[in-house]
Amino acid sequence: MTITFDERHLPVINRALECYMRLRSGQIDMALDEAYADKQIKMIKNKTYSHTGDLLIFEAVRKYYFKDLDSPNAAWGVGQYGHGGEEAYMISKTLRQYMAYERNDGYSGTGRDFDTTWGSYSDVPNPVVEGFSTRKFFVAPPKIRKKLYSLFCEKKYQECYDLIDKKWKTLPKGDKYELGFVDGALEWDGNIGVWVTAPRKKEEGW
Questions:
Q1: How far apart are the first and last CA of the chain?
Q2: Residues in Cβ contact with 142 at an 8 Å cutoff, skipping those fewer than 6 apart
Q3: pLDDT tens, position by position, for the chain (206 residues)?
Q4: Could you give the C-alpha distances from 183 to 135, 136, 166, 193, 195, in angstroms and in order?
Q5: 194 by DSSP, 3-state: which?
Q6: Which of 4, 145, 192, 206 is most buried, most CB within 10 Å of its CB?
Q7: Contact residues for 190 (Cβ-Cβ < 8 A; gap 6+)
Q8: Burial class for 10, CB neighbours closer than 10 Å (0-12, 13-18, 19+)
Q9: Three-state DSSP class for 87?
Q10: Angle of helix 28-35 versus helix 52-65 axis, rounded to 10
């Protein structure tokens, strides 16, 4: 199934998923914070906000729906949500990662927004954002482009990487490197370079 959203829908969808996951896990207070953050901020500014009402709701829900949790601070983890909670987690992680890379111009970064789901949480497969990839293409500098292309055509791949390590100091660090051409380039036209998976920006300390 393919569903098309406007970019502006995604934060709303993700917040709803986050709230639902928190409710299913037993983190009722965090679910309320997620759902009513704007109201809380407004009340705090007016100096009339109290968490008393939140605590009453939190304690009531915990009392009736989370009797098996052995302490007031305990919560279920992923894989124990039930009733669609795992699928909500998978959708949320997919959307958060997409939005994080979009905000960061295709680069990875710190924080859990850039992570994907790890392992299998449900029989339902992870959703996919069409056209999105954690890879970013970097065209080789002019001074090594022709030499790199020549070595690539001769399948001297190790020599390609040796040349890159020696002469291409601005190539970002990443999880994986693949020699190739920019998407759509079918022949040599100056577009040889490297696809970097999860590239990091140097100014962010990588």
A1: 38
A2: none
A3: 788 899 999 999 999 999 999 999 999 888 988 888 877 777 777 766 666 777 888 888 888 888 888 887 888 888 788 788 889 999 999 999 999 999 999 999 988 899 988 777 788 888 899 999 999 999 999 999 999 999 998 999 999 999 999 999 999 999 999 999 887 665 666 689 999 999 999 877 66
A4: 12, 11, 26, 11, 10
A5: strand
A6: 192
A7: 139, 145
A8: middle
A9: helix
A10: 130
Render pLDDT for 91-135 as a digit per residue (tens, 0 to 9): 999 999 999 999 999 999 988 899 988 777 788 888 899 999 999
Single pTM value for the model: 0.82
Nearest to 73 by CA among 33, 20, 25, 17: 25
Domain edges within the chain: 7-114, 135-204
Residue type, 11: P
